[in-house]
Design goal:
This protein is of the alpha+beta class and 430 residues long. It has 6 helices and 25 strands. Helices cover 11% and strands 20% of the residues. The longest helix has 17 residues, at 183-199.
């Protein structure tokens, strides 16, 4: 007699159902070296559900792979949100990427690395701070910056450069497999927030939920007074540097996480800009990281084939997006996310437009020069053409409404440094 087929444990690597408890994080059954469970990691409803700890003390959230769809005509949210209706499905909803595509869903670019589809990724719960020379994700830490004037990268072990490129060496103080969050990782979190916002019906499972829709998104440190421009109840503890806040210090805490729950990723709206990899520009052409490239293998130079910048690194690790793509035209200008009821992100499931969408690059008509829309928080999309481009996202402590989960700036290079630009690390599972 043949043995019975084991039942699939659908609690593992499940992103959950948008609008409900547990959505936006999950648990994994395979942990990389140095990662361990915390009290409550696998307990539904616990504040540590889906949270793991590295041997250096860093707290990271596990984000299971998911499929997404923009503007589905049969979406439960189509009537209200039209072409910007956002639907998320778990890995258990489809047998394959091809089956998902046939149903109009794409696998998010954040789950491709080294030519493989990953079951998920770990991402820092908090912005990285100096923990005895290691860039760690620790509650109430003082966020690192790329400037000598404010918690510099250079104070870490090995003295990483106080530049955007130095962020790569900064996160490597935790271990060789860690990498600077890519735009794909950052925008996967943004998309989950959008999906949760559209499906939530109360603050029970989403602390930042706003039934009016005016500010229905995660809050942060962005009003230049250790609080949020849209919510006076949010308060941060000062670091002592200008109006920067200690990461994870906000009260009420759940209002500052990507899923509105205590187990979510904090401080993605303001406080410190975060350096991102995945998209660069050189000699008039924008490039996106190939799905075959390994994010943790990228190094901080601009001459070698494994570098994140430079002609050799681009040839080995990137594919061309062209001289422009969607709203990313290379013209120096600050735009706002959203444009009336028009679609903001491409619905493409493969190719350049899919890469751009997953990197947070809107289609050409998805931005507005004056106001943007409530749905996307009026967040800033800063367009420019810079050689050895290194994007940053989220906004800072004094950007007011321009800060937010969709904020992205294509305005700095690998050698740029600022006192309000820091880093968050990510790690793929085994």
């Amino acid at each position: 007699m043949q043995p019975a087929t084991p039942a699939v444990d659908a609690t593992v690597n499940n992103i959950g159902i948008q609008g409900t408890a547990l959505f936006g994080v999950g648990i994994t059954d395979i942990l990389p070296l140095g990662m361990s469970e915390m009290e409550g990691t696998t307990t539904a409803g616990h504040e540590n559900y889906g949270n793991y700890q590295h041997s250096d003390g860093s707290i990271m959230c596990w984000i299971p792979m998911f499929y997404y769809r923009w503007g589905g005509a049969d979406s439960p949210r189509a009537t209200k949100y039209g072409l910007n209706a956002c639907d998320v499905k778990s890995k258990y909803d489809f047998d394959s990427v091809e089956a998902a595509n046939a149903a109009g869903y794409a696998l998010h670019r954040a789950f491709y690395d080294g030519g493989q589809i990953k079951d998920g990724f770990f991402v820092d719960k908090y912005q990285a701070s100096n923990n005895g020379g290691i860039a760690s994700s620790i509650k109430n830490g003082i966020p690192l910056s790329s400037s000598s004037s404010n918690a510099p990268f250079s104070a870490l072990t090995g003295s990483p450069a106080n530049t955007y490129a130095g962020a790569i060496d900064a996160v490597k103080t935790r271990g060789s497999e860690f990498f600077v969050t890519t735009l794909f990782v950052q925008r996967a979190l943004s998309l989950l927030s959008m999906a949760h916002a559209q499906a939530a019906t109360s603050i029970d499972n989403c602390a930042w939920y706003d039934p009016t829709g005016v500010a229905n998104y995660p809050k942060g440190c962005n009003n230049d007074a250790l609080g949020d421009v849209n919510d006076a109840t949010v308060k941060y503890t000062a670091t002592g540097y200008l109006k920067a806040g200690k990461t994870g210090s906000a009260l009420p805490f759940a209002k500052t996480t990507h899923n509105g729950q205590s187990n979510g990723v904090a401080d993605l709206n303001g406080n410190m800009y975060e350096i991102c990899l995945g998209v660069t520009q050189l000699s008039g052409t924008f490039y996106a990281l190939k799905t075959s490239a390994k994010a943790s293998a990228l190094t901080s130079g601009a001459t070698l084939a494994n570098d994140a910048w430079g002609a050799a690194g681009i040839a080995a690790n990137y594919e061309s997006l062209g001289a422009s793509i969607g709203a990313l035209t290379g013209t120096s200008r600050g735009m706002k996310m959203g444009n009336g009821t028009q679609q903001v992100f491409s619905s493409a499931m493969t190719g350049k437009d899919w890469q751009a969408s997953c990197a947070g690059i809107p289609i050409a008509t998805g931005v507005n020069s004056t106001s943007g829309t409530d749905l996307f928080g009026h967040d800033r999309f800063y367009n420019n053409r810079v050689d050895d481009l290194c994007p940053m996202s989220g906004g800072n402590w004094s950007n007011f409404a321009l800060s937010g989960f969709w904020d992205v700036s294509f305005n700095g290079s690998r050698t740029t440094n600022y006192d309000d630009v820091g880093v968050r690390a990510a790690l793929y599972g085994v």
